Amino acid sequence: MDLPLVAAAVAMTFGVQGVKAETESSSRLLDRITITGDPDRIRPVPGSAQSLDREVLDRHGYSDPHRILRAVPGVNVVEEEGYGQFPHISMRGTPPERNSRITVMEDGVLVAPAPYAAPAAYYFPPMARMDRVEVQKGSSAIRHGPYTTGGAINMLSTPIPGQTSGRADVLFGSNNGRRIHANVGDTVALGESGNQFGWVLEGFSEQSDGFKRLDNPASGPNQPDLDTGFDRRNFMTKLRWNTDPAAAVYQELEFKYARDDRSIDDTYLGLTQEDFDANPFRRYVGSARDEINTENELFQLRHYITPTANTDLTTTIYRTDTVRNWYKLHEVDGDGDGNFTGISAILDYPGQFADELAWVRGENTQGRGALRANNREYYAQGIDLKGGYWFDTGAWSHELEVGVRYHEDEEDRYQWHDIYAVSDQGDLFLDEREPFGSKTNRLTEADAIATYAQNTMVRGPWQIAAGLRYEDIEIRRRDWGTPQRNSSSLDRDRSNTYRVWIPGLGVTYDIDSNWSVLAGVHRGFAPGGASPDDKEERSTNYEVGFRYSGPNTRSEVIAFFNEYSNINIECTAVGGGCGAADIGDTVSAGEVDIYGLEALLIHDLGRSQDLGISVPISLGYTWTQSEFKQDIGGDAPNQWANARRGDSLPEVPEHQINASIGLAQEVWRLTLNANYVNSVNAKADPALSSQRIDSRLLFDVSGEYRVHDNVRLFGAVENLTDKEYVAHYRPAGARPGKPREFWAGVKVDF
């Protein structure tokens, strides 16, 4: 649907030349689905909060969530495949594993396919179509559980415009890259009643052939290289009815539907260090059949009403359905004797598994490789109510917000192996198919009731936000020992219940019209797994800092300390190994301390010095220290196996810096961004200490030129210096960061 929608949007643009539409929705609901408000309203927030608006998101035209979020202090990202199709996002040192320890939302609704039953999942909305991205950490983030230790991300989708308007971005890039994003919408009056009807249609598509190159014995002029990229298509629509904005009792009803389809030719298989040094963008023959296909549908109905001048109520009913199958090399039998070795072990210890590595390289016709069909289906649904009440008591003004959410979700795994061999010509062919469901046949279900109340009190320079959240969660997991699902084949049936109170208190004090200080304390929580022995993740989290806000400058410095009495890690295939645990198990790792500093400075040098040109400057810095308080044995899953007391958490760098400078006049703009991350251990195991994620300094540059009131030409270069670096050593082997990539195209607004 992308090209027809672009054509329609462009045609409408030139049909209404010179008409400047409203860019903000008239909807009053917007305040209830945000978590920070717009950037101008962040100062009184009693905790760390950042908001990246449409203008900021447009500067580089990024689609990779990692590149967008690295501008936010306190956020750590871990790369996997270079494009951000499977984000790993951490806040204040939380485990980055598939965003499983932060709360991720779109328009205030949880987006993970099964956020309670399977939080480490494989769907993330396309950030390139979002209108704003908000990040909140600290005590006020307890409103957005269940994961309250690190913080919350909320992506705001394109609002319904107040009059006919839209946009169309068409960009082309390296490796046959393409990004097309278009939307159009309107709000019209319904007769003389004053009621209104609004709508927006939006499409986003992105594709690339990829920057890696598969070993292909049939390559040549008539045998093009196999793609290692992706193809994504996303569609979203909103329909809204609302009463006359001047009505005594204002109401609006909004329906939202979104669909996302992806086909990604990616793999868990990396390279040995020797092969990486020779060619970091190589892919072995053993990964030639690897790909993941995903489908996600979202349905959402939201009602908003202001029954009195000082109250409002928002009711949201939501449902998401997700289907995915990552078909990828899982393990290798090097000599055909039926004994298989996982790909992580092969790449971690290539000298011990020479036959298996030879098969992976396409050089061993005696061995066999097992490709696992990681076939899963998810759903999540629920109803969420939020109410607001404003009142005064003496000299104090109060804003009381209460909420209750009933939520249920499910992960259904039905997985099998296909056995492949290598032909004499060096390519893969199917040798045997095992029965569907023979490797994993399991159902994990979760039901949760969450409630919270937060009262924000203001008196003079003081603002105090006191909140309390309650989570009542039941998780049940059933494993069947055969491909059938019946009582006689049920192998395990486990369940666990978590009931926990989560308090939080945050305070801000305005020293004067520019300076303010803040402090907060709250409880961190994340549910454990379905086993009765699993424990919830618990921590006590502190922060203190100050903010400055002036005509041309905004800055903040916040120190934080997260004291875990118990930190959890979930066993995942992407983690590279599970020890004694099974995929999906949650393992307690005991006490951990994480502390650090977040700093941000935003300044317009051109304005402050009357240069006649805008010179926006931003500088963000994150310093993080972490420490395991006890030894962790080899049975621990993933990258934490064999960690020792006093070790730092792997994957969490000590220093991160993101700096940006721009030059802009009315018709043109140029922006340079620099991002530095220091080297850090990929895994805690001392035997794998040589596996370090490389330090890197990456530069991105972008610019645009307005050739018409409604038309801008855009160009960008990502990784300007073509820096080569090891982005990670998991799931298996050394993995490269994305090399230099060029983008150019046109952006049309009307």
- The averaged pLDDT comes out at 91
How many separate helices? 8
Largest sheet: 22 strands, antiparallel, barrel
- Low-pLDDT runs of 5+ residues are 1-26
Span of the ends, CA to CA: 20 Å
- What is Rg? 26 Å
Oligomeric state of this protein: single chain
Class inferred from helices and paired strands: mainly beta
Residues in helix, %: under 10%
Beta-strand proportion: over 45%
Choose one word for the global shape. globular
**Total E-strand runs:** 39
Question: Can you walk through the features of this model?
Answer:
It is a single chain. The protein is built from eight helices and 39 strands. A hairpin with a 6-residue loop joins strand 9 and strand 10. The longest helix has 14 residues, at 2-15. The radius of gyration is 26 Å and the shape is globular. The two termini are 20 Å apart. The relative contact order is 0.13.
